[in-house]
Every structure is written in structure tokens, then in C-alpha cells.
Design goal:
The complex is a heterodimer. Chain A is an alpha/beta fold. Chain A contains 21 helices and 19 strands. In chain A, helix 3 (100-110) runs parallel beside helix 5 (144-156) and helix 14 (404-412) crosses helix 15 (427-439). In chain B, helix 1 (16-31) runs parallel beside helix 10 (301-323), helix 2 (36-53) runs parallel beside helix 4 and helix 10 (301-323) runs antiparallel to helix 12. Classes of the chains: A alpha/beta, B mainly alpha.
């Protein structure tokens, strides 16, 4: 269905090609998952399929891509609109109209589909994607998951035989991602659409994939094969595969169900749960209790936007040397809580204090010495033309000695070059740069809003290391996130919000492992809150005197 | 066309063009009169129709905002006139304000001093006229959003229509972005304001808008935007010529009709001829793009009646301004203006849509 014939793509001004002689065929009716670190050319590969590369983006294309027998050399994206449906990373940015039904019909109008057919296809698509109840709503009022499904529907109405999706679930909460994935499953099974899909959150999608296409590094070889085969050697794997490698299972399990069937064997090798507390977890050394001090406190905190309450009576205390994860659905008040701590919104009820002072009344220059927030889009606080310039202004903004920010960058992300434009950095590097800018004022409390959005596993690992280093220094860290694996990795405490209220607050093991939605894969596989991550299991295996040490030595242990 | 479309009772949303024609008719009526009674009547009619026929969409509450804007305009107009009024504007003194002495080069301008009833009432009347004009546009906005109207542009203007729609949706997004980035700048801890902070907010907002435009363009391209049939260069030039000539004719015609000084025959003649030529140009140009339309709003009996009522209102007013010019533009501001039956009838004709237009589909059924 999609045939890449020794495709190489070199962007203008680039020294080396992004894709180098990719020879891959995706069969009809197959769901093919594209895996690779940021910058390895996943998006370029996807955009080749409908000719956006090179017709739209520029660059040099060698070789050819054939879709349903049509070459992208002779056809522009608009000419391929009836064969390929392409949905970009941010669905909202691609909306042309302002209501759901119009958006669904837009592509068909351009293709001159007869009105009667249009009407029928819109109705079918509404049903297929489960968005009937929002059919008349303005697009801006939809949730992120609904928007993503509308964006998929909007290309699907042109009845393409190929669907290309660039990170369809990265920005979604687990519930929204489930809705989108259920819709995709229906498309593959009922309509036989060929789907090419790139995603960082492998744990969500890998069980849907028929085959996996691995782009291990920029300009490297593309490998395609059955998921179990490719993931057995891939540098990027979901936790369940990592656990399978650690335990020495072959073929590696792809789903939690697979792994759970083999779990009893692994549990035998692990030290028995004799009621003793779990061994201290690697990288989570907490500061001694004496050093703990209270950094911020909310008492019955309520915040409303134009009369709509976002927080209703939140009580919580944040202390130094602790990582707290704030979880909950989109719109449950996570971001609002962080904003209230930074004084960006004023409480309408109760009180909030950071370092003993009310944040809303503080001047920005004082506020940043008490708490620092890295916003959801790190680019919001980056505005200069180079990394060096950014560091200089950060120093002068914070009144810190020259070189403070650059020293932080060197420590947390040594490979970030001075002369690069912040927009040209990878997502992970940009996040760390924003983090350093915020840290320049040396705030004891650090707030991160949705930090792992769009990060690959390597960037995430570096973020985890950075957070652990900060906590070891005695910082308090708050993460507002959907990412359960990140939470399992770094957080000591989890606060779950729903409709602006705290519904759970306790240690990570207690809150997360017992949850149906927020449980990390390892905890689900081993059905025990003692092990939340693969490194927990590795530590236990190493500590136990059983002969399992031989096993763990045989397997490549990937620990953060 | 289905018979149902002609029904005056079957709930459906009216063609946006009908509402805009109706509102433009009201606006044309307003532009020919400074009679406060007629203006107030038009305001009331527009308000009543909006209340009776608006949907529950977010833009349906636009009329109130336009009404407030109108009040501000009247207020500003009166205050300015009172401050700058001179004795030549009347003899009935309302109040004497302290006069600000101005240097000799500003002779002829007076700040403060005598304020006459005449000056204030004239200012009120002209302010009310402007406010009524604006409210007519507000009524059209509340009944059919500009976005919906732009969806109906003929095929030849399709690209321009889409560009306008995108611009309309970008504006609020831009404002939201700017406030988000401004809030985020607080996180860098700089207390500086003014130009420096403008640059800090400006760069991320502009970069964000630019990258979103590129994303949107990519999405539109991959969804078939801009597919077209091949047409010869000569045909394209002919089309362009037709459209330009038509638009010129329409402009001349509108000017002639709205300006009471020129003869009406010239105005209406040029308007009709211009419209026909432009329509021919659009039809010819429309062949270039092959598109179909999803659930187009039908143009049936209710549309004819609604648009007709607006046009009839304007025509009646033209007649009034010829037969009794004193009613259209009252010469003595202190007298209660005369109101002949025909002048009363003109705005009331525009009330017809309440009876002849179908109720909007998303309204709750009336008890």
C-alpha cells in the first residue's frame, strides 16, 4: 500500500540527510507503528506519505514513495487527499472551520463529493468515532480527546485508504487516549484502513500494532518487523518490554496481559513479600527528615474563572526534598493549582502561601526566588535568539551572578550548544533550558506543568535524572502530569485531583498501585505495590541471594 | 428544493445572506434619516427580531454588546459637542460651563462655555443614527455569524472566503496566546514593563502564530484545498474584468442611493447593472474550482420574505425622504419631529421576519 523506494530526504542547509535510503513496504490493512527518538525523522517519514515532504516543506528527495500506486513525485498533497489522510501533531492547529460537522465535511467539499454522499459519510463518521453527541458544537469547546477524534474524522470522510497519524495520543490524558485508540482499532478492524502512526508513548499503542518500523537514529537504517522482534532490540521500549528483557523472557511480552501470565516465575525469584517495607528505591534517596521544611501550603484553596470553579477547597502542604505528582483528568484543576502557587491566579476562597507569603501579592522578581514554574509550553518563556543569550538574560532577570544559568545548563544538559536557537533544540533540550532559566533565581520550590509531553524515553530519563539531582539538593518539586510511568519513577507522593478537589493524597505506592487508571505497567504485571518500575525490580533481584543474578547479568539492564 | 424548505414554521436556520440583506436594508434606512423617533423605532425592531429569532450559539449574544457600544457612541458624541459647541448652534442655553482660554492660533475653537439645547439635541440625533447603524450590523451578527455568511461566498471567491474565515478564527486565538505568554513572562521574574516586555511577549506570540499558520496550511493542503480545473488565461482575464466592472457599478450605485443629493434613478440603475455584471463574473469564475457544498442553506420562501422586508423598508424610506424631507431630516432640533404614516410603516415592515421566518433549530420549544 505504501512503498518507500530507497527514500532519502535532506533538508535545505542540513549537512546530513534525515532519512537515508529507507526501503520499506507497508501492506494494505496493516497498522504500522513508527518508533524512534526525537529528531530521528519520524515526522519526515510520515509527511513523505502524502507528499508534504518535499512539496510543502522543501528539501531534497531521492528515491520515491508510492501510495496505492501513485507517486508523490508527480502528485501534490492536495491531489493525494482522496488516498491519504494526514493528521498532524496538534489537531487544533489544523482546524479550518469552527464547528464539528463543517470540519468533517471540509475535505469532501474540496474533493467535490456529491452532497448526498457527503451527508451519509458525515453521519457514518460521527458514529464510527463516537462523536455524535458533539456534532453541532463549536470546535473550541471540545476536550482534547474529542478534538483529536474530530481531526481524524475530518480526514476520514474523504474515505482515504491510508491514514497517517503523528503522535495522536501524546497530549491526551489516559482517558482521552483510550477513546482515540478505541476509534483507531475500529478503523483497522471494520474498514481495513492502512494506518501509519508515530508515537512516543509506546505503552499505549504497541498492542495495536501489526508491525513496528524503527528509526533508531537520524540518517540511520529503517528496520521493520513484528513488534516483538523489533522491540527486543530497540533502544526505545515501554516498561513492560524492559521488564521482559530483565526477566529474560523470549519473545518479549508486549502487553500487560502477556507479561502477567509469566509473572509468577519472576515473582518466585524476587524476595518474598514478608510484610517488610520495600527496599529503598534506587535514585530516590530522600533528605533526612530534620532538613525538611515547609515550602508552600494551601488551605481550603478555591479558584474560579468567571464564576466557573476550577479548584474547590484544596488542602495540601509541600515540603522540601520531596517530589509530589499532581494527577487527574484534563480540566481537573492541575494547572490551576500550579498557577495559584505562582500567584498567576488569585484565590477566591481559602488561602495559599509560598514561603509564608501570599503569592498573588508578590512582585515577579520576589516570586521567582520562592517558587519557579516551567509552563506547559516551555517556549512561552524563551524569547531570545540563542541559548547563550537566553542564559545571559536569565541571569540579569534573576539578579544572579553572570554564568549561573549556563552552569546549570552544563550540569543538567551538557550537550546543548550555546549558539543554537531555542526553537531548533529538541523538545527535551528545550524543556531543560526552560528549567534552567527558572532555576537561575534558585527557588526552593519547583513546579513542572506536563513536562513529558512530546518527550521520548531518553529525554524523559534525563528529566528524571535532573529532577532527582534537584531533590537531592533539597528542592521541593511538583509535577502536574498524566504520565504514570514518570510518576512511578520519581514521585514520592501523589495527589489526585477531580473536579477541583483532592480525591487521594498519599505515597506513590499506595495511591498509584491501587488505581485502575493510574497504575504503572510493572505494578500491574506483578500485582504488587512493592515494585513500580523496572529499576525497582532490578534492585530487588540484585539484593536477593537467589541465582537470579546470573539472569540479570545476561540481560541488558536499562535503568534510568 | 424540498417543499419543507418553503415552510414558515418548520424549524431550521435561515440562510445567513437573508439576515444580512435584511440588516443592510435596515442600515440603509437608518442612513437616510436623523429623525430620532424613526431611529429608536428601528432599534426596537432590530432588537425584537433578534430576541425572537436568535439561536443559542455563542455569537447570538452579540446584540447586547453592540447596543452598549451604541450608547457609548451617543455619550461621546454629546460630550464632545457640548465641549466644543458654539453660539451659532442655537439660542436656548442649557448650561454654562467654565471656558478654557485658548491661544490666539486656535481662534475659532472654543472649549467649554455656553452649551445650547440645540447643540446637544443635534449631537444626540446624529449619535443615535450612528448607534442605530452599528446595531443593525450587530443584529446581523447575532442572527447569522460572519463566518457562516462567508461559507456562502460564490465559488470564484472561495479562496478569499476561506482566508477571511481563518483570519476571523485567528484573531481570538492571537489574543489568548498573548495573554498566556504575558502570564508566563512573570515566571522569568522581570519586573520590567514597557518596550522590553513587549518584545518578550511579542516574539513568542508571533513565532507561535507563524508556526500555527504553517501547520494550518499543511493541514489544508493535505485535505485537498486549492484543487482546481484547468482554465485558459483568456477566460481568467475575462472573468476578472467582469467582476471588477461589476464591483465598480455596485459602488457607484450604492453611493448614488445613500447620498440623498444624487438622483435615485442613476443610483438604482448602476446598482442593478453592476450586480448583474458581477454575478456573471462570479458564475464564470466559479467554473475554475470544482467544489460541492455540505448541507447548503436553502434559499426558499422565508429567505425571500425576510430579505424582501429589509429591502422594502429601505425603499419606503427613500420614498419618505422625497415626499416629506422634514420627517427624514428634522430641521428644527427643538421641535418634536413629525412622523408621517409612511415613515412609521417603513421600520414596521422590517418586523415581518418574526412572522415569516422559521424558528432556529436549537431553540427550546416554546411552551
Amino acid at each position: 500500500m505504501i512503498e518507500f523506494r530507497s527514500v532519502s530526504v535532506t533538508y535545505e542547509g542540513a549537512r546530513s540527510p534525515v532519512l537515508d535510503t529507507v526501503d520499506v513496504t507497508v501492506d494494505e490493512g496493516e497498522l504500522c507503528l513508527v518508533v524512534g527518538p526525537s529528531g530521528a525523522g519520524k515526522s519526515t517519514l510520515l509527511r513523505c506519505v502524502n507528499g508534504l515532504v518535499p512539496h510543502f516543506t522543501g528539501g531534497t528527495l531521492a528515491g520515491d514513495v508510492l501510495v496505492d500506486g501513485r507517486s508523490i513525485r508527480d502528485n501534490h498533497p492536495r491531489d493525494l487527499a482522496d488516498v491519504v489522510g494526514y493528521v498532524g501533531q496538534d489537531p487544533a492547529a489544523g482546524f479550518v472551520t469552527d464547528s464539528v460537522e463543517d470540519e468533517l465535511a471540509y475535505a469532501m467539499e474540496s474533493l467535490a463529493v456529491p452532497p448526498a454522499v457527503m451527508r451519509k459519510r458525515v453521519e457514518e463518521t460521527l458514529d464510527l468515532l463516537g462523536i455524535v453527541d458533539v456534532r453541532g458544537r463549536p470546535l473550541a469547546t471540545l476536550s482534547a480527546g474529542q478534538q483529536q477524534r474530530v481531526a481524524i474524522g475530518a480526514v476520514l470522510t474523504a474515505s482515504p485508504r491510508v491514514l497517517v497519524l503523528d503522535e495522536p495520543t501524546s497530549a491526551l490524558d489516559p482517558q482521552g487516549a483510550d477513546e482515540v485508540l478505541a476509534a483507531l482499532r475500529r478503523l483497522v478492524h471494520d474498514l481495513g484502513v492502512t494506518i501509519l502512526l508515530a508515537e512516543h508513548r509506546l505503552e499505549r499503542v504497541v498492542q495495536l500494532a501489526d508491525r513496528v518500523l524503527l528509526l533508531a537514529k537520524p540518517g540511520g537504517r529503517a528496520v521493520i518487523g513484528l513488534p516483538a522482534d523489533v522491540l527486543a532490540t530497540s533502544p526505545l521500549v515501554p516498561p513492560v518490554v524492559e521488564l521482559g528483557r530483565l526477566a529474560g523472557w523470549a519473545p518479549v511480552p508486549l502487553t500487560v496481559r502477556d507479561a502477567r501470565r509469566r509473572a509468577p516465575e519472576l515473582l518466585e525469584r524476587l524476595p518474598a513479600g514478608d510484610g517488610s517495607p520495600a527496599p529503598p528505591r534506587a535514585g530516590r534517596s530522600t533528605a533526612p527528615p530534620a532538613a525538611e521544611r515547609q515550602l508552600a501550603r494551601a488551605d481550603g484553596l478555591g479558584v474560579g474563572y468567571r464564576g466557573v470553579p476550577a479548584l474547590r477547597g484544596v488542602d495540601c502542604t509541600l515540603i522540601s526534598g520531596q517530589v509530589v505528582a499532581v494527577m487527574g483528568r484534563n480540566g481537573s484543576g492541575k494547572s490551576t493549582l500550579l498557577k495559584a502557587l505562582m500567584g498567576m491566579v488569585s484565590p477566591t476562597a481559602g488561602s495559599v502561601a509560598v514561603g509564608g507569603r501570599a503569592p498573588a501579592s508578590l512582585r515577579p522578581s520576589v516570586m521567582v526566588t520562592l517558587a519557579g514554574l516551567v509552563p506547559q509550553q516551555p517556549t512561552d518563556i524563551l524569547y531570545t535568539e540563542s541559548v547563550a543569550e537566553e542564559c545571559r538574560t536569565a541571569d540579569s532577570d534573576a539578579g544572579a551572578p553572570a554564568g549561573t544559568c549556563r552552569a546549570l545548563v552544563t550540569r543538567l544538559a551538557p550537550d546543548v550548544p550555546d549558539d543554537r536557537h531555542p526553537r531548533d533544540l529538541s523538545e527535551g533540550q528545550r524543556l531543560v533550558l526552560a528549567l534552567c532559566v527558572v532555576l537561575t533565581a534558585a527557588p526552593p520550590l519547583l513546579l513542572l506543568d506536563e513536562p513529558t509531553r512530546g518527550l521520548d524515553y531518553q529525554a524523559k530519563r534525563r528529566l528524571v535524572a535532573a529532577v532527582q539531582a534537584l531533590v537531592a539538593d533539597g528542592h521541593g518539586v511538583v509535577l502536574a502530569t498524566h504520565d504514570v510511568e514518570l510518576v512511578a519513577d520519581v514521585a514520592q507522593r501523589v495527589v489526585i485531583l477531580a473536579e477541583g478537589q483532592v480525591v487521594a493524597d498519599g505515597s506513590t505506592a499506595d495511591v498509584v498501585a491501587s488505581s485502575a487508571v493510574f497504575a504503572p505497567q510493572v505494578a500491574t504485571v506483578l500485582s504488587s505495590p512493592r515494585w513500580l518500575t523496572v529499576s525497582d525490580v532490578a534492585a530487588s533481584l540484585a539484593a536477593s541471594p537467589s541465582p537470579s543474578s546470573a539472569t540479570s547479568a545476561r540481560c541488558p539492564v536499562v535503568s534510568p | 428544493m424540498p417543499r419543507l424548505a418553503h415552510s414558515l414554521r418548520q424549524p431550521r436556520s435561515l440562510h445567513p445572506g437573508a439576515w444580512w440583506l435584511w440588516a443592510l436594508g435596515l442600515a440603509a434606512t437608518t442612513s437616510r434619516t436623523t429623525n430620532p423617533l424613526i431611529c429608536l423605532l428601528i432599534l426596537a425592531v432590530a432588537g425584537f427580531v433578534v430576541m425572537a429569532r436568535r439561536s443559542r450559539a455563542p455569537w447570538a449574544y452579540a446584540y447586547g454588546a453592540f447596543l452598549r457600544l451604541g450608547l457609548v457612541i451617543i455619550g461621546v458624541r454629546i460630550v464632545l459637542q457640548a465641549l466644543l459647541s458654539s453660539e451659532s448652534q442655537g439660542i436656548h442655553v442649557l448650561v454654562v460651563l467654565p471656558q478654557v482660554p485658548l491661544p490666539s492660533w486656535a481662534a475659532g475653537i472654543k472649549l467649554g462655555g455656553l452649551v445650547t439645547w440645540e447643540a446637544v439635541l443635534v449631537a444626540f440625533a446624529s449619535g443615535l443614527q450612528l448607534a442605530t447603524l452599528i446595531c443593525c450590523i450587530g443584529a446581523a451578527n447575532a442572527l447569522a455569524s460572519a463566518t457562516r455568511l462567508l461559507r456562502c461566498v460564490p465559488g470564484a471567491l472561495y479562496e478569499i472566503g476561506v482566508a477571511s474565515v481563518v483570519a476571523l478564527t485567528f484573531a481570538p486565538q492571537f489574543v489568548a496566546d498573548a495573554s498566556r505568554v504575558k502570564a508566563a513572562q512573570r515566571l522569568r521574574g522581570s519586573d520590567a514593563g514597557g518596550l522590553r516586555s513587549l518584545r518578550r511577549t511579542g516574539m513568542p506570540v508571533l513565532e507561535g502564530a507563524l508556526s500555527r499558520s504553517v501547520e494550518l496550511a499543511a493541514a489544508m493542503d493535505s485535505r485537498g484545498y486549492g484543487r482546481r480545473n484547468d482554465v485558459s488565461v483568456a477566460a481568467r482575464r475575462f472573468t476578472t474584468g467582469l467582476v471588477l466592472a461589476g464591483v465598480l457599478g455596485i459602488c457607484v450605485g450604492l453611493f448614488g442611493l445613500l447620498d440623498a443629493g444624487t438622483t435615485d434613478w442613476l443610483g438604482s440603475g448602476a446598482l442593478v447593472a453592476g450586480s448583474l455584471v458581477a454575478a456573471a463574473g462570479l458564475v464564470a469564475g466559479g467554473r475554475r474550482t470544482a467544489r460541492t457544498r455540505y448541507r447548503p442553506d436553502p434559499w426558499a420562501l422565508p429567505e425571500w420574505l425576510v430579505a424582501g422586508s429589509g429591502v422594502a423598508c429601505a425603499v419606503l424610506m427613500v420614498v419618505v425622504s422625497r415626499t416629506s424631507p422634514d420627517a427624514a431630516v428634522p430641521p428644527y432640533p427643538l421641535q418634536i419631529p413629525e412622523l408621517p404614516l409612511l415613515a412609521l410603516l417603513a421600520p414596521l415592515v422590517a418586523l415581518l421576519p418574526v412572522l415569516v421566518s422559521p424558528p432556529p433549530p436549537d431553540r427550546l420549544p416554546e411552551p
